[in-house]
Amino acid sequence: MFERYEAGERAILVHIDFSQEGEREDLEELKLLVSSSGVQSCGVVTGRRSHPHPKYYCGAGKAEEIAASVQAEQADVVIFNHALSPAQERNLEQLCQCRVLDRTGLILDIFAQRARTHEGKLQVELAQLRYLSTRLIRGWTHLERQKGGIGLRGPGETQLETDRRLLRERIKTILKRLDKVAKQREQGRRARQRREVPTLSLVGYTNAGKSTLFNRITDSGVYAADQLFATLDPTLRRIELSEVGPAILADTVGFIRHLPHDLVAAFKGTLTETREADLLLHVVDCADERAAENIESVQSVLEEIEADQIPTLLVYNKIDALEEAGPRIDRDEEGNPVRVWVSAQADQGMDLLFAALTERLGDAMLDLRLALPPVAGRWLSRLHELNAVMATDYDEQGQTLVTLRLPERDWQRLLKASDGQLADFIRE
Asked: Rounded mean pLDDT of 215-220?
């Protein structure tokens, strides 16, 4: 697309501490991101500033130090733990004479490596193109530009304009394809809603153990590893919950603080599984020192995708990494489960998690007793189809006495189908 230094395997990491809390990033998280991308860190440059430098982001003196480190370590790429402007990126590349990558570019690169499905690849490419669109300027300085005035006019459309046009056309093509995939997803989602199958969605900070928990619950073989963004493509599996019946569990992409907006926009189709869920399972790495901050970061992304109002059950994972921590359920003042402490890796607390899910999803279960006359035999058949009949008996008048337990939504649907007739058969 345009001339840049090729990225290599050896990187100098740059981390600047800012006085503003909102600008701060985590150096350990950067190291995890870099190792997840397959790049070797050969040096770290740190510094402190009150605000970013307009030309080099880190200040002229610190930029010279970074350039010296690149020469000394023979590094191929400099990776900043911050979002750089296109101009800052270009200035640093000219000074360091190597590729410069910011936090957003690094996350995009990891996403590009992880994408497996057609939809995932399209979403990553869309995010990459939107990111590149702001970095085309001065990409072709060796080519002739259009100039005004006699004798100075160029050959028509410049290379930069050509790139911009091709990029816009490619973005339009990808959006059309994603729209088609989204419609197919919506058909499957509507079919589940018609069958009234509840949907559970796993959300949480990246590397909190969502895929390991997903595999433990569903006996699936979804890729799970101790690295950031191991899961990119959403996976859905059917599970059985006692007293609730079948449910759909969705494993989704992990969140990260200061998640690039282009990525959030590109993955909104995938995250629809989260927005449409009946219950969110917010998986938290309880052994992480920044667990509370990670919960806030996930909450901010949920607000951004308009999923912050969905009922949530906190799942504190990796209790095997804590001393004297065992599986348990924490409840609120009304006795409802709000937190479950488990270890997916060590298979601890899974029975408690299923019990909590049954409680949270089984709140709307009804216990009824009906006296059905012989002419209402078809309704008895419908109740058996719904697996709602717990016991049957008969009285002297020939009526079938049925003890029921079923979700309230199923009962409301039956009432509507019978024009309210079934309500007349209810017995105390």
From this structure: 80
Residue 177 clears pLDDT 90, i.e. is over it: no
Q: Is 253 annotated as a binding residue?
A: yes
> What is the model's pTM?
0.66
319 is an annotated ligand-binding site residue: yes
How confident is residue 335, by pLDDT bands cut at 50, 70 and 90?
confident
Q: Answer whether residue 126 shows pLDDT above 70.
A: yes
- Is 205 labelled as part of a ligand binding site? yes
Tell whether 254 is in a known binding site: yes
Q: What is the mean pLDDT of residues 27-48?
A: 82
202 marked ligand binding residue? no
Q: Domain ends where: 319, 336, 361?
A: 361
Domain boundary among 101, 120, 152: 101
Instruction: Give the total number of structural domains in the chain.
Output: 3
| Residue 86 belongs to some domain of the structure | yes
Determine whether the annotation assigns residue 345 to a binding site: yes
Residue 318: domain span: 197-361
* Residue 207 assigned as binding residue: yes
The verdict on 321 and 381 lying in the same domain is: no
| 151 appears as a binding residue in the annotation | no
Task: Please check whether residue 136 lies inside any domain of the structure.
Answer: no
227 labelled ligand-binding: no
Strands 77-80 and 99-101: parallel
Residue 418 CB burial class (10 angstroms; 0-12, 13-18, ≥19):
middle
In degrees rounded to 5, what are phi and psi of residue 415?
Answer: -60, -45
Measured CA to CA, the distance from residue 257 to residue 293 in angstroms comes to: 9
Q: Is 320 annotated as a binding residue?
A: yes
Please report the pLDDT score of residue 4 as a whole number.
Answer: 42
What is the model's pLDDT at position 231? 53
Residue 421 annotated in ligand binding: no
Residue 59 falls within a domain, yes or no?
yes
The answer to whether the beta carbons of residues 139 and 3 sit under 8 Å apart is yes
Rounded distance between C-alpha atoms, residue 335 and residue 356, angstroms: 11
Q: What's the CATH number where 42 sits?
A: 3.40.50.11060
Q: How far apart are CA 25 and CA 16, in angstroms?
A: 8
Residue 252 labeled ligand binder: yes
Query: So what's the pLDDT on residue 340?
Result: 92
* Amino acid at position 165, single letter: R
388 annotated to a ligand binding site: no
Q: Is 183 annotated as a binding residue?
A: no
